[in-house]
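Q: What does the predicted 3D structure of Aminotransferase look like?
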Amino acid sequence: MRLGEVPGVAGQTILVNGVAKTYAITGWRVGWMVGPKDAITLAANLHSHLSSNVTNIAPYSRLPVDTE
């Protein structure tokens, strides 16, 4: 029996997997997530903030320029 076939579990299960370790291609960052749509949406939103924004210290790097 698969976990998703257990009554009541499919809506509470999140599967996260990738290819880096499985296929020994550790330089690749390829993965996926399967689960309830609302959980996937929240995870995608979090991922976008963690991986595509300006670093936390970047705004402070210009302080010496602004204060002169």
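A (community wiki): The structure tokens above were generated from the sequence. The longest helix spans residues 37-51. Helices lie at 37-51, 63-66.
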